[in-house]
Amino acid sequence: MTVNLILVMNRTHARLFEQTRRNESMRVVKEWDNPEGRMKAGELLTDSAGKDMNPRVEFGGNPQTGPHSVKEEFLRRFCSEVIGYIDHGRTGEQFDNLTLVAEPGTLGVIRRALGAQLESMVTTSISKDLCQFNDREVAQYLGSVKSY
After folding, report:
1. CB 128, CB 138: distance < 8 Å
2. What Å distances lie between residue 55 and 42, 61, 66, 138, CA to CA?
């Protein structure tokens, strides 16, 4: 039996669905919330006295990614947490395929967080924010997408 995982994600929320057959219903496996995704950069950076630090401070990146903002750093950490959970399932051979559905900026961060083995399991990527949809609406939308 083929098991497909579907990740629906944006900066503030992620849901992981499991589907055993394409036309069967999907069930939620896990959900994550990222309250930092709703915060302004100035709220994310404060010093020990509670004073605002410069929200334009850039974190040093590696040569491949370059520097990035504090909001991008929090998004990268959130994506790493979610992808780490999915990768753990990959090593346990708990699924066969992975579908990614995320807002455009988040989809890029997710793709950079994937390891080579997990990336090879991605069968479909959809650049759309479906986090505001309920589970039934997500399933209906995915059912209408031919590449899914």
Report:
1. no
2. 5, 16, 17, 35
Q: For 34-50, write each residue's pLDDT tens digit.
A: 876 555 555 555 544 44
Q: Work out the angle at residue 115's Cα, subtended by the Cα atoms of residues 118 and 145, and round it to the nearest 5 degrees.
A: 45
Domains of the chain: 4-38+69-144 (3.30.420.60)
Strands in 97-102's sheet, in edge-to-edge order, are: 27-33, 13-19, 4-9, 97-102, 122-127
